[in-house]
Amino acid sequence: MKIEEYGIGNVRSHVRYFRNILNVLPSRYSYLDSQRLVIAQFALGGLSFLGAIDQLQNKEEFIEWIYSLQSPHGGFFGSKIMKELPSHLAKPHIASTFAAVQCLILLGDELDRIHIPELLSWIKSLMNPDGSFQGAADASEPTDLREFTYCAAFLIHIFGTSNFSDEDRKRAVQYIISCQSPDTAFGQVPGAEGHGALTFCALASLKFFGCLHSDEGVLSAAELKRIVRFCVNRQSEGIHGRPHKPDDTCYTFWTCAALKLAQPSIDISEKLDKERVLSFVRSCVDENIGGIKKLNAKNQYADATHSYFALAGLGVIFDDVMPEYMLKKDLTKRVLRIRNRVKESKLDSSNSLLSRAGNLALSVSFAILSVYATYLLREPLTSA
Amino acid sequence: MLKRHIKNFQIWHHRQVLCEWANDGSREKAMTELIFKQDQKNYHAWQHRQWVVKRFGLFEGEIDFARELLVKDVYNNSAWNHLYFCIQNSTGWSEEIRKSELSFVQEKLEVAIDNECAWNYLRAVQNHILTANPQLADKFVSKLEVIEDRGNSHKHLAAYVADYLAEKTERDSDKESGTKAVQIYTELSSNLDPVRRNYWNYLSSCLSAKI
To answer: Among A29, A64, B18, B26, whose CB has the most other CB atoms within 10 angstroms?
Structure first.
C-alpha cells in the first residue's frame, strides 16, 4: 500500500518535517545533541517510509559525516562532540552504532567502510557475564534489553558471529528470557513490568539469534499465543504499551511489530482493528509543522521519535516494513545481500589464506625435494 | 535533577551507582515515592525501586506498599507487577501463598471486573494453566452465565472463561466445552470486544476446526 493511501494528512508536510530535522532543530532538542545519529536515523527513516529519501541531494555528504563518527576501535560515536571528548571519556555507543548502520543502509551505502573485526570485537566487549549488553564501555547506563541487546543482535546478524560463540549466543538468549514478565510480555530487566517496546526488542533479538520459530526456538507455541494476546490487548483506539495506559503513536510500531514477529504467518488485520489504529494516528498528525505527535492533545508538538515510529508501525500493519529490521522490505533485500557478501568475504579470506598456506607448503616441499634430488643425482665422491 | 528529568536513564543509573558505592539504599524508597506522586507508573522509578529492594534486601513492607497503591488505583499495572516481584523474591510461591493471592485478586475483580491487570495477575499466579484450578474457573463460568446484560466491561471475564473452556477441550477432548468456548469467542467478537473482533473470530475458527 502506498503511503498516500494511508490517509495520514499531507504527505509533503511530513516530508518537509523530516527534511527540516536534517537541517536544524529547535533548542528544546539540544539535550539530544550527543545522539545526533539517532535523530538522523529517525529523519532518514521517516523519509524512507514516506518514499521520499531519493529527494535528498546530499546523500554523499551524509554518508561522509556518518563514517567520520566511526571509531577506529569499532563502533560509532553519537556525534562529533562525543568523539572529541577527552580520550578516557570518548566512547562509541551501541545505539549510535545501530543508528549509523541504519542510516547508511537508508542512504544506499554498501557498508564497505565499516571496520568489521573491530566492530565485532567491541560489541563482544560490551557483553556482560549474564548475557546482557552495556551501551558503551564505560557502564554509564544500565543494561537495557530495549536498545542494547536488540542493537547488538541486529549488528551481529549483519556483520557476523566471529567474536560471538554459541555459548555467548545462548547466554544472550537466556538473558532475554529472564526478562519475561508474569503477564508474558518482556520488561527492561528481569522482574520489570512487561512493556510493548521491550516485547518487540526481545522477539526481534531472539529472531536475530536464531531462537524464534526455529529448531532452537525458546518460546513454545502456547507462550507465543499468550504474547499475541498481550499485544492484541494493547489496542484501545490506537495502541499503548502497558495495560491501562493511554494510547501513544510510537506503540503503533512496537506492538504491531511484536505481533508480526510472534505470529508471522498471520495478517495483522486478523488481530487488530487497522482502521482504528489509522484513525488514531491521523488524529495525532501535527497540522502546523507536519510530523506526528505522541498523542492527540493541543499542547503537543510532533517529534522525531513518534513521527518515525508511527510511520514504521503503519508500514508493519500494511506489510511494507520488515519488523525486525525497522526497514522497508525493498531495503531488507539489500541488507541480506550485504550480509551474504560479508559472509563470503570471510570465507574468501579464509580460503585465500588456505590457498596461500597451501602454496607455501608446496613451495617448501618442492625446495626440499629439489635439494634431495640434487643430493641423489650428484657426482659420487669417488667417480671412476 | 531527577525530579526534573524523571525519564532520563542515565540519571537513574547514576543514582544506582552512587547507592552501590555508598552501600546504602535506605533513602531510595522515599525517593521513588516522590516520583510516584508525579507519575504513578514511571517505569524507571519502579525499576530503581525493584533494584534497591533486591540489592539491599529491603522487602519488608513492599507487599503492603503495592497493595496500598492498588487500593488507590486498582488499574496500576506497575503496582501489580511489583506485588508479583516481591512475592517471587521474598516468600516465593508456596501453595498457601498462591491460594491467598487468588483470593486477593478475586476481591479486586469485585471492585473492577474490567481490570486487565488483575486478570493477568490471576493467570500468572496460576502459571497460565487455567485448568489447574477448576473450582475457581467454574465460579467464573457461572458468573458469566448469570450476567444478563453483558457489555464491554465483561470482556476479560468472557475471555478467561473461553480460554479455560478451550484449554479443557484440548486437554480432555471435551466437545461440550469446546462448543461453549466457540460461542463465547463469537460473543466477544460481535458484542463484548468489537475492537478485537477479527482476533476473536480467528480464535473461534481455530477452535471450531479442532472440535
So the answer is: A29
**What type of residue is B140?**
F
Higher pLDDT: A30 or A299? It is A299
Q: Is B7 a catalytic residue?
A: yes
**ipTM at complex level:** 0.94
The CA-atom distances, in angstroms, between B155 and each of A271, A286, B54 are 16, 34, 36
**Partners of residue A182 in chain B, C-beta under 8 Å:** 81, 84, 120-121, 124
Residues A171, A174, A177: CA angle, nearest 5 degrees:
155
Position B211 pLDDT exceeds 90: no
Burial (CB < 10 A; 0-12, 13-18, 19+), residue B143, is middle
Buried b (16+ CB within 10 A) or exposed e, A110-129: ebeebebebbbebbbebbee
Residue B51 burial (10 A CB sphere; 0-12, 13-18, 19+): buried
- All three cell numbers of A94, joined, read 551501541
Distance, in Å, from the CA atom of A213 to the CA atom of A216, rounded to the nearest integer, reads 8
pLDDT-derived band of residue B9, with 50, 70 and 90 as boundaries?
A: low
3-state secondary structure of A321: strand
Phi-psi sector, A326: left (phi>0), alpha (psi -120 to 50), beta = left
CB of A278 within 8 A of CB of A238? no
Of the listed ranges A23-27, A160-164, A186-190, the one predicted with least confidence: A23-27
Angle between helices A11-23 and A304-317 (to 10 degrees): 140
Given the residues B3, B7, B175, B210, the one annotated as active site: B7
Distance from CA of A358 to the nearest CA of B (A): 53
CA–CA gap between residue A382 and residue A296 (Å, rounded): 108
Which has the minimum average pLDDT: A291-295, A331-335, B69-73? A331-335
Instruction: State the pLDDT confidence band at A144, using cuts at 50, 70 and 90.
Output: low
Residue type, B159: A
pLDDT the model gives residue A376: 57
B153 interface with A at CB cutoff 8 Å: no
Q: Residue A33 burial by CB count (10 A; 0-12/13-18/19+): exposed, middle or buried?
A: middle
User: A88 exposed, middle or buried (CB, 10 Å; 0-12, 13-18, 19+)?
Assistant: exposed
Residue A342 predicted with pLDDT over 80: yes
Asked if the C-beta of B160 comes within 8 angstroms of chain A's C-beta atoms, the answer is no
- Residue A230 CA to residue A66 CA, distance in Å, equals 38
The verdict on B67 touching A (C-beta cutoff 8 Å) is no
Q: Out of B85, B115, B124, whose CB is closest to A183? A: B124
User: Average pLDDT of chain A?
Assistant: 88
**A350: buried, middle or exposed (CB in 10 Å: 19+, 13-18, 0-12)?**
exposed
Q: Using 50, 70 and 90 to split pLDDT, how confident is the model at A379?
A: very low
Q: So what's the pLDDT on residue A362?
A: 52
pTM: 0.91
**Rg of the Cα atoms in chain B:** 21
